[in-house]
Amino acid sequence: MKRRMRQIFGSDGRMLMVAMDHTAFLQDPVDGLVNYGKTISDSVAAGADAFLSPIGSAQRYDEEFGRSSVVVSVDTRAPFGAEAVARALAIGADGIKAMVYPFANEDWVNQSAALAAQASAVGLPYLAEPVPGGFSAADMRTPEIIAAGARVAAETGADMIKTFYTGDAKSMRKVVDYAGVPVIILGGHAKDTLEEFYGPIWDAINHAGVVGVAVGTNIWSSKNPGGVVRGLNAILHEGATVEQAVSAAK
Protein backbone atom coordinates (compact mmCIF):
# COMPACT_ATOMS: atom_id res chain seq x y z
CA MET A 1 0.00 0.00 0.00
CA LYS A 2 2.72 2.50 0.99
CA ARG A 3 4.76 1.74 -2.10
CA ARG A 4 1.77 2.27 -4.38
CA MET A 5 0.85 5.52 -2.60
CA ARG A 6 4.39 6.79 -3.14
CA GLN A 7 4.07 5.86 -6.79
CA ILE A 8 0.85 7.85 -7.20
CA PHE A 9 2.21 10.99 -5.56
CA GLY A 10 5.30 12.92 -6.60
CA SER A 11 8.43 12.94 -4.45
CA ASP A 12 7.15 16.15 -2.82
CA GLY A 13 3.92 14.47 -1.74
CA ARG A 14 1.79 16.24 -4.32
CA MET A 15 -0.17 14.80 -7.22
CA LEU A 16 -1.07 16.08 -10.66
CA MET A 17 -3.69 13.66 -11.94
CA VAL A 18 -5.19 13.80 -15.43
CA ALA A 19 -8.78 12.54 -15.25
CA MET A 20 -9.68 10.61 -18.40
CA ASP A 21 -12.39 8.31 -17.09
CA HIS A 22 -15.12 10.40 -18.73
CA THR A 23 -15.18 8.01 -21.69
CA ALA A 24 -17.16 5.64 -19.48
CA PHE A 25 -20.18 7.97 -19.43
CA LEU A 26 -19.92 10.88 -21.92
CA GLN A 27 -22.56 10.75 -24.64
CA ASP A 28 -20.54 12.58 -27.31
CA PRO A 29 -16.95 12.01 -28.47
CA VAL A 30 -14.51 14.79 -27.56
CA ASP A 31 -11.34 15.31 -29.62
CA GLY A 32 -9.01 15.07 -26.63
CA LEU A 33 -10.55 11.73 -25.68
CA VAL A 34 -10.90 10.44 -29.22
CA ASN A 35 -7.13 11.00 -29.43
CA TYR A 36 -6.73 9.30 -26.06
CA GLY A 37 -3.19 8.05 -26.60
CA LYS A 38 -1.86 11.43 -27.76
CA THR A 39 -3.47 13.24 -24.84
CA ILE A 40 -1.78 10.78 -22.48
CA SER A 41 1.60 11.14 -24.20
CA ASP A 42 1.42 14.94 -24.19
CA SER A 43 0.42 14.95 -20.51
CA VAL A 44 3.20 12.55 -19.50
CA ALA A 45 5.77 14.70 -21.29
CA ALA A 46 4.40 17.78 -19.50
CA GLY A 47 4.77 16.28 -16.03
CA ALA A 48 1.57 14.40 -15.12
CA ASP A 49 2.06 12.18 -12.07
CA ALA A 50 -1.01 10.01 -12.50
CA PHE A 51 -4.03 9.28 -14.65
CA LEU A 52 -7.61 8.36 -13.86
CA SER A 53 -8.88 5.90 -16.44
CA PRO A 54 -11.53 3.23 -17.01
CA ILE A 55 -10.12 -0.27 -16.92
CA GLY A 56 -10.52 -0.70 -20.67
CA SER A 57 -8.36 2.29 -21.55
CA ALA A 58 -5.91 1.48 -18.76
CA GLN A 59 -5.24 -1.80 -20.58
CA ARG A 60 -5.31 -0.36 -24.09
CA TYR A 61 -2.89 2.52 -23.52
CA ASP A 62 -0.37 0.85 -21.24
CA GLU A 63 2.62 1.98 -23.31
CA GLU A 64 1.48 5.60 -23.46
CA PHE A 65 1.09 5.78 -19.68
CA GLY A 66 4.70 4.71 -19.32
CA ARG A 67 5.98 5.21 -15.78
CA SER A 68 3.06 7.42 -14.74
CA SER A 69 0.63 5.97 -12.22
CA VAL A 70 -2.77 4.73 -13.31
CA VAL A 71 -5.79 4.74 -11.00
CA VAL A 72 -8.70 2.85 -12.51
CA SER A 73 -12.22 4.18 -12.13
CA VAL A 74 -14.80 1.54 -11.19
CA ASP A 75 -18.34 1.15 -9.86
CA THR A 76 -18.78 0.59 -6.13
CA ARG A 77 -21.96 -1.42 -6.53
CA ALA A 78 -21.82 -5.11 -5.68
CA PRO A 79 -20.80 -7.49 -7.07
CA PHE A 80 -18.69 -5.34 -9.39
CA GLY A 81 -16.44 -3.97 -6.66
CA ALA A 82 -14.68 -7.23 -5.78
CA GLU A 83 -14.33 -8.14 -9.44
CA ALA A 84 -12.96 -4.70 -10.23
CA VAL A 85 -10.28 -4.93 -7.53
CA ALA A 86 -9.08 -8.26 -8.92
CA ARG A 87 -9.05 -6.92 -12.46
CA ALA A 88 -7.25 -3.73 -11.42
CA LEU A 89 -4.51 -5.84 -9.85
CA ALA A 90 -4.32 -8.05 -12.92
CA ILE A 91 -3.60 -5.11 -15.23
CA GLY A 92 -1.08 -3.56 -12.84
CA ALA A 93 -3.08 -0.53 -11.71
CA ASP A 94 -1.62 1.59 -8.91
CA GLY A 95 -4.96 2.41 -7.33
CA ILE A 96 -8.72 2.26 -7.68
CA LYS A 97 -11.33 5.04 -7.61
CA ALA A 98 -15.10 5.07 -7.16
CA MET A 99 -17.93 7.50 -6.56
CA VAL A 100 -19.74 7.62 -3.22
CA TYR A 101 -22.90 9.61 -2.49
CA PRO A 102 -23.12 10.57 1.20
CA PHE A 103 -26.52 11.71 2.50
CA ALA A 104 -28.27 10.29 -0.57
CA ASN A 105 -28.56 6.59 0.14
CA GLU A 106 -26.61 4.73 2.78
CA ASP A 107 -26.19 1.78 0.41
CA TRP A 108 -23.59 3.82 -1.49
CA VAL A 109 -21.66 4.41 1.72
CA ASN A 110 -21.83 0.74 2.65
CA GLN A 111 -20.70 -0.26 -0.84
CA SER A 112 -17.79 2.18 -0.62
CA ALA A 113 -16.78 0.58 2.67
CA ALA A 114 -16.92 -2.85 1.06
CA LEU A 115 -14.78 -1.70 -1.87
CA ALA A 116 -12.30 -0.07 0.53
CA ALA A 117 -11.98 -3.32 2.47
CA GLN A 118 -11.47 -5.35 -0.69
CA ALA A 119 -8.81 -2.94 -1.95
CA SER A 120 -7.05 -2.73 1.40
CA ALA A 121 -6.85 -6.51 1.64
CA VAL A 122 -4.60 -6.58 -1.42
CA GLY A 123 -2.71 -3.33 -0.77
CA LEU A 124 -4.46 -1.29 -3.46
CA PRO A 125 -4.98 2.41 -2.60
CA TYR A 126 -8.60 3.54 -2.82
CA LEU A 127 -9.53 7.04 -4.00
CA ALA A 128 -13.13 7.95 -3.14
CA GLU A 129 -15.01 10.78 -4.82
CA PRO A 130 -17.87 11.87 -2.54
CA VAL A 131 -20.77 13.77 -4.10
CA PRO A 132 -23.08 14.71 -1.20
CA GLY A 133 -26.69 14.02 -2.07
CA GLY A 134 -25.84 12.96 -5.61
CA PHE A 135 -25.19 15.10 -8.68
CA SER A 136 -28.67 16.63 -8.72
CA ALA A 137 -28.39 17.97 -5.15
CA ALA A 138 -26.91 21.39 -5.96
CA ASP A 139 -28.04 22.67 -2.56
CA MET A 140 -25.58 20.28 -0.92
CA ARG A 141 -22.43 21.98 -2.19
CA THR A 142 -21.83 24.16 0.84
CA PRO A 143 -18.35 23.99 2.43
CA GLU A 144 -19.80 22.34 5.52
CA ILE A 145 -21.56 19.58 3.58
CA ILE A 146 -18.54 19.06 1.30
CA ALA A 147 -16.41 18.65 4.43
CA ALA A 148 -18.90 16.24 5.98
CA GLY A 149 -19.09 14.22 2.76
CA ALA A 150 -15.32 13.99 2.59
CA ARG A 151 -15.18 12.67 6.15
CA VAL A 152 -17.93 10.13 5.51
CA ALA A 153 -15.99 8.85 2.48
CA ALA A 154 -12.78 8.72 4.49
CA GLU A 155 -14.55 6.77 7.22
CA THR A 156 -15.47 4.08 4.69
CA GLY A 157 -11.74 3.38 4.47
CA ALA A 158 -10.70 5.58 1.55
CA ASP A 159 -6.99 6.35 1.45
CA MET A 160 -7.52 9.57 -0.54
CA ILE A 161 -10.42 11.89 -1.29
CA LYS A 162 -11.23 13.66 -4.56
CA THR A 163 -13.77 16.41 -3.99
CA PHE A 164 -15.08 19.84 -4.92
CA TYR A 165 -13.21 23.05 -4.25
CA THR A 166 -15.32 25.09 -1.84
CA GLY A 167 -14.49 28.41 -3.48
CA ASP A 168 -11.98 29.81 -1.01
CA ALA A 169 -8.92 28.57 0.83
CA LYS A 170 -10.25 29.18 4.36
CA SER A 171 -13.32 26.95 3.99
CA MET A 172 -11.35 24.41 1.94
CA ARG A 173 -8.87 24.09 4.79
CA LYS A 174 -11.76 22.88 6.96
CA VAL A 175 -12.52 20.17 4.39
CA VAL A 176 -8.88 19.05 4.39
CA ASP A 177 -8.59 19.06 8.17
CA TYR A 178 -11.87 17.21 8.67
CA ALA A 179 -11.22 14.57 6.01
CA GLY A 180 -8.10 13.34 7.79
CA VAL A 181 -6.67 11.76 4.61
CA PRO A 182 -4.99 13.39 1.60
CA VAL A 183 -7.43 15.56 -0.36
CA ILE A 184 -7.25 16.43 -4.04
CA ILE A 185 -9.69 18.73 -5.79
CA LEU A 186 -11.42 18.13 -9.09
CA GLY A 187 -10.94 20.57 -11.96
CA GLY A 188 -14.59 21.21 -12.71
CA HIS A 189 -16.14 22.71 -15.82
CA ALA A 190 -14.09 24.26 -18.62
CA LYS A 191 -12.87 27.76 -17.77
CA ASP A 192 -12.61 30.65 -20.20
CA THR A 193 -8.99 31.52 -19.38
CA LEU A 194 -5.99 29.83 -17.83
CA GLU A 195 -5.88 32.56 -15.16
CA GLU A 196 -9.42 31.67 -14.13
CA PHE A 197 -8.55 27.99 -14.07
CA TYR A 198 -5.19 28.17 -12.30
CA GLY A 199 -6.16 30.75 -9.67
CA PRO A 200 -8.33 28.54 -7.41
CA ILE A 201 -5.87 25.66 -7.77
CA TRP A 202 -2.99 27.88 -6.62
CA ASP A 203 -5.02 28.98 -3.59
CA ALA A 204 -6.04 25.42 -2.74
CA ILE A 205 -2.47 24.11 -2.95
CA ASN A 206 -0.73 26.99 -1.22
CA HIS A 207 -3.25 27.97 1.43
CA ALA A 208 -5.73 25.14 2.00
CA GLY A 209 -3.49 22.09 2.42
CA VAL A 210 -4.83 20.34 -0.69
CA VAL A 211 -2.19 17.90 -1.98
CA GLY A 212 -3.20 17.70 -5.62
CA VAL A 213 -5.68 18.06 -8.43
CA ALA A 214 -7.57 15.71 -10.71
CA VAL A 215 -8.26 17.64 -13.90
CA GLY A 216 -10.16 16.34 -16.90
CA THR A 217 -12.22 18.77 -18.99
CA ASN A 218 -9.80 21.68 -18.74
CA ILE A 219 -7.03 19.47 -20.13
CA TRP A 220 -8.58 17.29 -22.82
CA SER A 221 -10.95 19.98 -24.10
CA SER A 222 -7.98 22.29 -24.66
CA LYS A 223 -6.23 22.64 -28.01
CA ASN A 224 -2.99 22.38 -26.06
CA PRO A 225 -3.47 19.75 -23.32
CA GLY A 226 0.25 19.40 -22.73
CA GLY A 227 0.52 23.14 -22.12
CA VAL A 228 -2.27 23.06 -19.54
CA VAL A 229 -0.50 20.22 -17.74
CA ARG A 230 2.81 22.11 -17.82
CA GLY A 231 1.17 25.03 -16.06
CA LEU A 232 -0.33 22.74 -13.43
CA ASN A 233 3.02 21.04 -12.94
CA ALA A 234 4.62 24.44 -12.38
CA ILE A 235 2.09 25.27 -9.64
CA LEU A 236 2.16 21.89 -7.91
CA HIS A 237 5.80 20.93 -8.15
CA GLU A 238 7.78 24.10 -8.91
CA GLY A 239 6.17 26.70 -6.68
CA ALA A 240 5.10 28.87 -9.60
CA THR A 241 2.69 31.77 -9.36
CA VAL A 242 -0.45 31.85 -11.49
CA GLU A 243 1.25 34.22 -13.91
CA GLN A 244 4.28 31.94 -14.19
CA ALA A 245 2.02 28.93 -14.74
CA VAL A 246 0.19 30.71 -17.56
CA SER A 247 3.54 31.49 -19.20
CA ALA A 248 4.66 27.86 -18.80
CA ALA A 249 1.46 26.69 -20.50
CA LYS A 250 2.12 28.65 -23.69
Automatic annotation (TrEMBL):
This is Fructose-bisphosphate aldolase, class I. InterPro entries: Aldolase_TIM, DeoC/FbaB/LacD_aldolase, DeoC/FbaB_aldolase, FbaB-like. GO terms for molecular function: fructose-bisphosphate aldolase activity. It comes from the Bacteria. Pfam families: DeoC.
